[in-house]
Amino acid sequence: MEKRILSVFLFVFSVVFPLLHASSGNLIVNGTRGSSLFWLCHHTFNEPFQPDKCSIFWQGYKGSDIVLHVYKNGQEEFHHQHESFQNRTTIFLDQLPLGNFSLIIEKLMLQDDEIAVKVIFISEGKPAKKLCQTTLYVAAPFQEPKIEINQAENTATCSTKGGYPKPELKWTSEDGRILKLRKLPVIKKENDGTYSVISTVNITGLNNVTCEIYNPTSKETLRMSHKEPVTPPATGTIISISIIIIIIIIIMTIIFFAVVITLKARCPLPWNVPAQRTQTTGGASAEREAPCAAPGQNESYNGVSPRENQAAYRRQNSVTNDSIAANHD
Ligand SMILES: *[C@@H]1O[C@H](CO)[C@@H](O)[C@H](O)[C@H]1NC(C)=O
Ligand SMILES: *[C@@H]1O[C@H](CO)[C@@H](O)[C@H](O)[C@H]1NC(C)=O
Ligand SMILES: *[C@@H]1O[C@H](CO)[C@@H](O)[C@H](O)[C@H]1NC(C)=O
Ligand SMILES: *[C@@H]1O[C@H](CO)[C@@H](O)[C@H](O)[C@H]1NC(C)=O
Ligand SMILES: *[C@@H]1O[C@H](CO)[C@@H](O)[C@H](O)[C@H]1NC(C)=O
């Protein structure tokens, strides 16, 4: 008897639900396969909660009605629970009088995806209230994408599987440009309900391409990049150029030192010559002698260098010669 009333009730809702479904889905709850989902629902009573005079249905719809959980005559009732939700749902019995109609769904499955759920609260002699209309979405993560290169055709192929729902795939080049695909990705639904994806792109003239797999429910993006290895001839060229440069540097160093040693043996380096040399206004003989003075001649003695003495002596001589010449005239 009671069972038949419930059946009639469910029938009514199964007819009404499809219409409601179109306008519902205001709320969204997303979960991951295998994990638990907390569907929050709160109701504010107009009058005190009377456990034995009300029924609460946690009701879903996906093509047909799905009863997730039932509370009736002051206790939980599992007879009408859909078998896919057996042992997976929990309500907060002690908090129902406070209007806490939240439901926990454990071990989410791909079949739970896109179930439109709501709580139907029926108080004796009152119209049913529809509460907390929500759509459940379930995601499963994709495996790390793989990229394979076809050298002959100059194409890259990206593939992944095991995820849910249908992913969005795109290819980008190093500068972030989205590559145009000549063929749409092949997205296939496997027997376990998950998707596998394969996409091929022409990589002519591209060094680095990235394949991006986006899961619209979990909002997770997986990326895999492929970089063209630098071609062996180019590597060889770089090595040869480096060797040549190193050899040139060595040869130039040897020549430099050879020149320095030769110069040093013949005469002092220009920067070792005393400053007085340029100031000396003496005769041509002094100028000639300065660049190749023997070591030791530069040492000063009593503040006056021997060379200054020599120059002074020569100046004296030339003056004498001049005066002799003048005397001749
Ligand atoms: C309902 O009860 C659960 C468990 O105690 C709690 O986590 C949740 O916040 C409550 N929700 C509301 C709306 O009160
Ligand atoms: C639920 O749990 C009960 C008791 O542990 C068990 O007998 C039953 O087979 C379970 N149902 C499902 C669908 O796992
Ligand atoms: C390729 O480019 C992507 C995006 O610019 C970058 O994250 C990745 O590290 C690059 N890969 C290589 C191997 O250079
Ligand atoms: C790849 O693209 C290049 C130029 O971007 C084109 O010449 C070549 O035919 C394309 N290869 C394939 C296999 O489509
Ligand atoms: C939940 O999943 C749906 C369906 O894929 C998506 O449209 C929505 O943006 C997701 N919401 C959140 C908050 O992740």
Automatic annotation (TrEMBL):
Q: Tell me the compartments it is located in.
A: Cell membrane
| UniProt keyword Metal-binding, yes or no | no
Stretch forming the signal peptide: 1-22
Provide a GO CC annotation, any one: external side of plasma membrane
Q: Where is the composition biased (Polar residues)?
A: 315-329
What keywords are annotated for this sequence in UniProt?
A: Cell membrane, Disulfide bond, Glycoprotein, Immunoglobulin domain, Membrane, Receptor, Signal, Transmembrane, Transmembrane helix
Transmembrane portions of the chain: 238-263
What the entry lists under Pfam families is as follows:
C2-set_3
In this chain the Ig-like domain maps to 127-225
Which domain of life does the protein's organism represent? Eukaryota
**Descriptive protein name:** Ig-like domain-containing protein
Membrane topology per the entry is:
Single-pass type I membrane protein
Which GO terms of type biological process are on file?
Answer: cell surface receptor signaling pathway; cellular response to lipopolysaccharide; immune response; negative regulation of T cell proliferation; positive regulation of T cell proliferation; T cell costimulation
Annotated region Disordered: the residues are: 280-329
